[in-house]
Amino acid sequence: MPNWRNWAGSVRVSPRRLVRPSSIAEIQDIVRRLPIGGRVRMTGSGHSFTPIAITNDVLMQPSDFGEGIGVDSRRGVARIPAGMTLRDANIHLAAAGFALTNMGDITAQTIAGSISTSTHGTGLAFTGLAGQVEGFGLVCADGSHLDCSSSENSDVWRLGRVGLGTLGILTYVDMKVVPAFRLHAVEEPRRLADVLENFDRIVGSVDHFEFYWIPHTKWTLTKTNLRTQEPPRSRSRSGKWWTKTVMENYAFGAVCAAGRMAPSLIPRLATALPSSGRQEFIESSHEVFATRRLVRFHEMEYSIPRRHLVEVLRLIVEAVERSNLKISFPVEVRVTGPDDVPLSTSFGRESAYIAVHMYRGMPYERYFRMVEEILLTFEGRPHWGKIHFQSANTLRSRYPQFEDFCGLRSRLDPRGVFLNEYVERVLGI
Ligand SMILES: Cc1cc2nc3c(=O)[nH]c(=O)nc-3n(C[C@H](O)[C@H](O)[C@H](O)COP(=O)(O)OP(=O)(O)OC[C@H]3O[C@@H](n4cnc5c(N)ncnc54)[C@H](O)[C@@H]3O)c2cc1C
């Protein structure tokens, strides 16, 4: 029996040693005692779809070391234990009157896991999580501990904010934070043609916008969020439970399960999704950004330059319609601003993100490869934590500072103790 598996159930491993260190000193000890040729990795919460986190040698699991968060309110920076989940970080920050400025759509990930794969949310005026990193602590291959920021070990900080777990073990992450705020949220179905025609105007005029195209229909479900300090206007507890738990998880899960048993039913089942109605509410930012995901799936996501989004999405819609594929999961579209993190999927460009999903237990490779072929012709960069079929041969030219990152990695870890098969493939080692 494997004793570690990821959330999607697609990556399983029985490492020689599975350990949950309870202090930085214990991590240093484990790294120092590694025999010649030994390897060690730290997982986050296992929410990557790729085998990026694992090794079959020494696998460490995260802990927040029983520590809370320290907020430097003058600088607007919070020190978060690397193994703390975003969910717990949000609770600590809210109690101190602060919030992360932007995040993705779940909070089960650890802060270290999130930044290491370039996890992002949506909003053109905002970056992904790695772009919000002010500093971090790192246990290196020789067991030493480095504090890294723009003023200390700045090269490690600059290149290492998205590090794929290859530079060492992160011990804390200093994140930029902002005073707590609320989001005025509107969630409603809209026609795909209308969203695509107005896409540039919409993403330029609201803080956070995303939409889900429902394959086999001409409809999307949209989410628009405006940052506000207006008083809360919450959904009722039962209304929230009905939409978020029953409709978005149990009912949607039942539709997916029925579609898996009888794929020919999927196009007809899909027509039920846009009838979810309109919702408007004002709640604290982290309650709006994140939702619970109980339905398990496989996912591929690419970033492309934002200017190509409308053309690329039309090509994907046409390709799906021409194929005989039956797809029960919506295609998700988000945007972010550019950042300066060398291995970030948004490095140096305004980006649009397109994510395709397949319900667990259904074959995904043909669908994902078909979409990937389109994305690759538009300078696509795959999410490091999600399924893709690329290696360093194709990735190298997509990141202008790829070689700088690889140089730093081999300087910090010449024996390759933090490597695994996945990172060897994508970094060309
Ligand atoms: C349901 C679901 C929803 C998702 N939503 C989004 C989304 O909205 N936006 C988005 O961009 N992505 C999303 N993802 C992907 C997810 O955010 C990333 O895969 C993220 O890396 C997972 O974090 P984790 O804590 O589970 O880390 P893991 O997947 O366990 O590990 C990721 C990487 O981090 C490294 N790592 C972890 N801890 C440390 C440490 N202390 N030191 C060094 N390296 C470390 C691991 O070695 C590995 O390389 C989603 C995934 C799922 C399953």
Given the structure, what is the number of helices?
13
- Mean pLDDT comes to 94
Choose one word for the global shape: globular
- Under the CATH scheme, the architecture of one domain is 3-Layer(aba) Sandwich
Q: Give the class-level CATH name of one domain.
A: Alpha Beta
Strand line-up across the major sheet: 15-12-14-13-17-18-16-19
**DSSP strand content:** 15-25%
Heteromolecules bound: flavin-adenine dinucleotide
What is the helical fraction, as a range of percent?
25-40%
Radius of gyration equals 21 Å
CATH topology group of one domain: Vanillyl-alcohol Oxidase, Chain A, domain 3
The oligomerization state is single chain
> End-to-end span in angstroms?
30 Å
Class per helix and strand makeup: alpha+beta
Strands, count: 19
Largest sheet: number of strands, sense, barrel closure? 8 strands, antiparallel
Unreliable residue runs: none
| Name of the CATH homologous superfamily of one domain | FAD-linked oxidases, C-terminal domain
Structure commentary:
The strands form four sheets. The chain has an eight-stranded antiparallel sheet. Strands 6, 7, 8, 9, 10 and 11 form a six-stranded antiparallel sheet that branches. The chain has a three-stranded parallel sheet with strand order 3-5-4, with no helix packed on it. Helix 9 runs antiparallel to helix 10. Helix content is 30%, strand content 24%. The protein is built from 13 helices and 19 strands. It has a domain of 201 residues: FAD-linked oxidases, C-terminal domain (Vanillyl-alcohol Oxidase, Chain A, domain 3). The longest helix has 25 residues. By secondary structure, it is of the alpha+beta class. The site of flavin-adenine dinucleotide has 33 residues, from strand 4, helix 3 and strand 11.
